[in-house]
Amino acid sequence: MTIKGETIWVTGASSGLGRELALRLAEAGNTVIASARNMEALRDLVEGFSNIHIFEFDVSQREQVSNIRASLEQRYSSIDRVILNAGTCEYFNVHKPDWSMIGRVSQVNFIGAVNTLEAVWGLLLAAPKPHIVGVGSQAVGAPFPRTQAYGASKAALHYFLESMRVDLQLLNVDVTLLKPGFVDTPLTQRNDFSMPFLWPPEKAAVKMLAALEKRQRSYAFPLPLSLLLWFGRSFPRIWLRLMRPSVVADAAGD
């Protein structure tokens, strides 16, 4: 890996993709700032690594931003890359709708990314070649049952970063949007449905880091899922019939 000697902040680093990315970046010789809500899991992450620095940050809480910014500025003169990875997922039930859940999910998946950028902005612009990396989702490619909150929050993140890329040309800041499919993480392990083309986090992290090395504008994986979602967008009526939940499953969904 050619990403070496950088200072990189990874949010949501306590498990899953965030943890895997943090470990691989640290192994390559980078200084990794790892944040999450779960400090116990973060402490396990640093075992054997002197170049992983951890701190607690709930990205959904904007009132924490000023303290996080101050802590970072005391320790670092610049941050080369920020990986906006923190995320959550809850499923909507049309029979027993929890409307507040939509805001709850968006507060982490979208607003959390905005809060993170607010905290790191000055240090990021101080780097010689700043790089913003957003971990989105292929779920925005076509509608799935019960994913109103998750899909909408990721779609908001996608548009936000795409628009940021346009404006940040003036500041020579690169923006990469990663769009993973199903990855075997503690988050997806709670799912009660089939997940086609499921990848282990180790494989996903390798592909994601390769995209970061090239500073690709966008990278979606795996390809078979991308093709399936293309079909869903191209033939929406067929997709709607295919995605129709069964009466039993729909009524029992969380």
Note down, in words, how this protein is organized.
The chain is an alpha/beta fold. It has a single domain, classed as NAD(P)-binding Rossmann-like Domain (Rossmann fold), CATH 3.40.50. The chain is built from ten helices and seven strands. Helix 2 links the parallel strand 2 and strand 3. Helix 3 packs parallel to helix 5 and helix 4 runs parallel beside helix 6.
Coarse shape: globular
Instruction: Report the span from N to C terminus.
Output: 41 Å
Query: If you average the pLDDT, what whole number results?
Result: 93
Percent strand? 5-15%
Q: Tell me how many strands there are.
A: 7
Radius of gyration: 18 Å
How many separate domains make up the residues?
A: 1
Strand sequence of the main sheet, in spatial order?
A: 3-2-1-4-5-6-7
Which CATH first-tier class would you pick? Alpha Beta
Largest β-sheet summary: 7 strands, parallel
Search tags:
Rossmann fold, 46% helix, 10 helices, 254 residues, 7-stranded parallel beta sheet, 14% strand, alpha/beta, globular
